[in-house]
Structure formats: structure tokens, C-alpha cells
Amino acid sequence: VWIFGYGSLVWRPGFEFTSRKVGFIRGYSRRFWQGDTFHRGSEKMPGRVVTLLEDCAACTWGVAYEVRGEQIPASLEYLNMREAVLGGYDTKLVKFHPQEKDAEEPILALVYIATPQNPSYLGPASEEDIAAQIIVSSGCAGHNIEYLLRLADFMRYFCPQAEDKHLFSIEEALISILPCLYYTEEPLEET
Predict the structure, then answer these.
(1) CATH number, domain at 167?
(2) Which residues are the signal sequence here (predicted)?
(3) Is 163 labeled as catalytic in the residue annotation?
(4) From the candidates 16, 83, 105, 189, which is the catalytic residue?
(5) What is the per-residue pLDDT across 74-102, written as a single tens digit (0 to 9) for each?
């Protein structure tokens, strides 16, 4: 079984696997439209994590993990809890295209996608609003800023040829907001 990850699974799969390949799936674009009240946020301040939006002209880069034998039930049980129960994601089968030049035919892979029908779905917002929400959110897996920056780093280092305007626009918005936060948090000096 192959499992395709396009969010935190690219750097923290959390399950045993036999091999991994960087590559992409067609027909979807990555969006920070899913709320997270456990891993990267809380009930009071949900974080923003990625889901996939059907988009016939797009492709989304990530990592596919091959799981075999005893790894299969353990990884699917773990991912069901992490992605479906705690995250509100559904599973779909997609065609994964490995980055390798000598790759054979596309590989069928499972992918977890959050749809507008789940209760944690937040939907579209401006890059600035998404960045502002990410800055103030953290959960049991860490700060939401880490999630955004690790995903941007993955794209830069493993998929430098790929474009992800949505991701990098949010990263830019976050960087432009952060200096203001550091400045306003410092105490004013008395004159």
C-alpha cells in the first residue's frame, strides 16, 4: 500500500514504512483551509493546516510512503486516528507520479482530504488572515508556525521546480507580520 502525504506527513509520518518517494498528484491544489483543534491549534484558537482542493489544472507535491506486511494495519490504524478521527479527513485513491526520471507508471496511493462537509473545515481566507491565525495557534504537536515553515522548506529543498503560490504567499505574509509582533512585545523605555 502507498500513502501520499502533502502536509505534516512529508516530515513526520509517524508510522513505519518500507520506502518513500517524492513526487506529485494531479488534479488537486494544496490549501490551508482546514482547521485543527488538536495537533496545531485548540478549541479556542484553531490552527490552519492543509487539505486538497479539486483543481484539474493543478498538481500537488509531497511524499508517498510504501507500507508492507505488518506495517499496513499499524499505519492505517495510526493514520485513521491522526487524520480521520482527530482531523476530519476522508480517504481517496489517487495516482502518484514519482519525481525520479526513470519512474515507471503512476502508483495508486491513499490520500487524506478534508472536505467542506467536516466540522473543522474553515474554507478560504486571505493569505494575511491565514498567516495571522497561524501565528497565534499551537497544539499538542507544536506551534502552527512550525507546520507552515517546515512545509515551505520541504517544497524548497525537495521540489524546487514546483510552484505553490498559496503556500509561499502565506509564508511571506507571516514573515511580514512577525517583525511587528516582536516590536510590540518589547517593553517601552522610559525617557
Answers:
(1) 3.10.490.10
(2) none
(3) no
(4) 83
(5) 999 999 998 988 888 999 999 999 998 77
